[in-house]
Structure to design on (275 residues):
């Protein structure tokens, strides 16, 4: 479902055509904060998520505050046709995707044998398949224009195995590997690819994943606006990897030099619940 934009401005104050940024999972958390940052920087927005009401309210707010154009596309990336639906509507509206932010994703907490198969497969669909699909659809336009930016939101989970969230950690490892590889391939075409790897962040993620009582989320959590700003700045600078926060950076580096069995055991300990 596509809602019409609430404004029709297409030029920034300097009289130049504004760039457009497409953000998935834009109704809450890091995606929401990224939308606010890009709006304040005078980018036009295409916001996608499943929540009609939240996206509509956000679009009205950002257009009113920043005098930009915001399009809303309600789509479910857990459905295989979700990315095609989004891209088809963007094409129908005649919008260039100058910047793509694949932010949508979710996790599930528990032993692999206890988590329903449907949940795990939906996670793979959203975190891996939809991200890859939407990137595949938008990159050819960027190649033709010889410019573009892509940000894929992974996690510090990408750097090690994660017992009690085995599939989630594996999906984020894919996102990191995929991002670094295509960053290398697309650089000659004037396209940058950035992978944002936040650690524990104060969003709705922990509640949805049922891991609010885990040691990880009882430890230090970064605020979502700070993570989003780190991602924005890194993306605009063309950085390939962004790990916000000194503690997260230290942890990401430490797992690269530690024995894998030790890393896995520590990851499990951090994931375990405390009462």
């Amino acid at each position: 479902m596509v809602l019409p934009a609430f404004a029709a401005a297409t030029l920034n104050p300097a009289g130049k055509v504004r760039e457009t940024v497409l953000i998935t999972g834009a109704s809450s958390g890091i995606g929401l904060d990224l939308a606010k940052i890009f709006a304040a920087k005078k980018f036009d927005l295409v916001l996608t998520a499943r929540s009609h009401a939240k996206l509509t309210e956000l679009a009205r707010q950002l257009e009113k505050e920043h005098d930009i154009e915001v399009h809303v596309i309600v789509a479910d990336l857990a459905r295989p046709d979700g990315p095609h639906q989004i891209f088809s509507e963007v094409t129908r509206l005649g919008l260039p995707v100058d910047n793509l932010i694949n932010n949508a994703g979710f996790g599930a907490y528990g032993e692999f044998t206890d988590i329903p198969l449907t949940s795990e497969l939906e996670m793979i669909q959203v975190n891996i398949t939809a991200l890859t699909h939407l990137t595949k659809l938008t990159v050819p336009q960027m190649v033709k224009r010889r410019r573009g930016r892509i940000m894929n939101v992974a996690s510090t989970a990408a750097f090690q195995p994660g017992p009690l969230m085995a599939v989630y950690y594996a999906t984020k490892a894919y996102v990191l590997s995929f991002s670094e590889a295509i960053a290398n391939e697309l650089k000659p075409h004037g396209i940058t690819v950035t992978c944002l790897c936040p650690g524990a962040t104060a969003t709705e993620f922990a509640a949805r994943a049922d891991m609010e009582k885990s040691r990880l989320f009882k430890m230090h959590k970064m605020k979502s606006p700070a993570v989003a700003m780190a991602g924005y700045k890194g993306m605009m600078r063309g950085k390939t990897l962004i790990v916000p926060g000194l503690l997260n950076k230290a942890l990401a580096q430490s797992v690269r030099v530690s024995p894998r069995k030790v890393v896995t055991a520590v990851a499990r300990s951090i994931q375990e619940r405390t009462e």
